[in-house]
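Let's do one together. I've listed all components of the complex below, 567 residues spread over two lines.
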Amino acid sequence: MSSGAEDIQDLYSTTLRDLARNPAHRGKLDNAAATARGDNPMCGDRVDIFLNFDGPRIGETRFVARGCEICQASAAMLAEMVPGKSPDEARALGEGVKTMARTGQTNDSTGEMARLSIFAVVHKFPSRVKCATLAWSALDAALSGVRETSSE
Amino acid sequence: MDTNIARTFDVKRLRQDFPILATTVRGKPLTFLDSGASAQKPRQVIEAMTRCMETAYANVHRGAYHLSEAATESYEAARVAVQNFIGAAEPEEIVFTSNSTMAINLVAHSFGRGILKPGQFVLTSEMEHHANLVPWQMLRDAGLGIGLRYVRVTEGGELDMNDLAAKLADGKVGLVAITHMSNVLGTVTPAARIVKMAHEAGAKVLFDGSQAVVHRHVDVAALDADFYVFTGHKLYGPTGIGVLYGKRKLLDAMPPFLGGGDMIESVTLERTTYAAAPARFEAGTPAIIEAVGLHAAIDYVTAIGMDAIEAHERALVEHAMRVLPGVEGLRLLGAAQDRGGVFSFALEGVHPHDLSTYLDRSGICVRAGRHCAEPLHARFAVDGGTTRASFGLYTTPEEIDLLAEKLVDARRFFA
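Okay, and this is what the predicted structure of the assembly comes out as:
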């Protein structure tokens, strides 16, 4: 079994911590074409996602997150990655993140999934998986026209 | 044995009664500071439950054979143990439930729907955990004309007693349902004063004693409480067993909650007559093994002495009040004069969830979140939650020192 100190350094990687503090893509998007709120009722984490569309593709994406560093970093990565994708591509990316956060495994270790692999270590911290997936659940809800979703 | 020696509180020796405290987390000794969520179990409780299953187990109140009679005897002996533990007048005033939540739901249903009248109010407080909020909101929303009021909490984390008086003033409150000790702030509420004020205003009183009963001696008769609820698993007993104390005449006047076996007097296809309390409120096979475990837990804390446990915890609280405020960036919620061993705090720059994960890597278990008390967190403007350290009889000052040390480290790590 690895020591706690190594685990915690892996979880709170420099990349994750920089993302959690990065001001980009934050704030509401007025008149967003799609928006949804994700709540984790157990810990109080909350992520609001705002999207516009650029033809059939997702356009500008912003978020407002109240939560831990993992939750903040995950939302920041999402807002950076989904513009330019079709809704189906974005959902598929979200499924990849969810699988990786739960199992540590990914069937694609290239490109964007490689960047998202900073969340793979979360599977060693079962109580923190939802912190990494909440923003992606909110994205699913926004793309499906649902206004609110819960991590439960 | 010299009784003075027996009464000396030796935390190191007591810790040996709790097998889990000898385990390690990732090679680190377990520092369990989440007893407010659920306490660890002493060997005496574990063994009593095992012994029941190995030697004296059958269903209760049913079989005319030795084992069933023995199990019935153990189950009813647990009721008497609870009666004596909280100073109830009779064992019939003790109803076994599955936990505090079910006990409060029982009162909300049976007393709320059966006894309260349209136009009356239930008065609870902003300090409650969800178990003492949601059942009353459900009662309010049931279309029976029963309203709900809340007593405000002061900035210092105490009940606003002027507000309590004001909300009782019109005589429309039928039931005051308030915590005896906050699971977030540690505040111990002035129970005797609340009872006096409520009774003068014509209201009955229910105390949620889930936390209080663990930390100090409770005497429901001296308090003149009408209802008092607590749960076994926070009192070093098993999960799945809780207690509703109710004054005999109140319980006898209340309609049943759940229907089924054990709560009846006679059943025909046309109608059923109900048994007297407490059986009326114990439908179905009860938590027999858990009742035996609760009995063992009560015997355990009684042998140590609730006064000795209270004195130990007061010393821990004083120690924590010296040590925790020295952690830079730490903000404690509440500053009640009378408080138990529960500390909720925010650490500047560190989210409670991140902090909890960080501390876990040092073997320290704390609770992060809103502790099933969302309105209270909104009241103190910490919607994102807090981190909570809560003490048990096995907690040591050294564990509080370790917490403080790791809080300083965490702040550096997340800076």
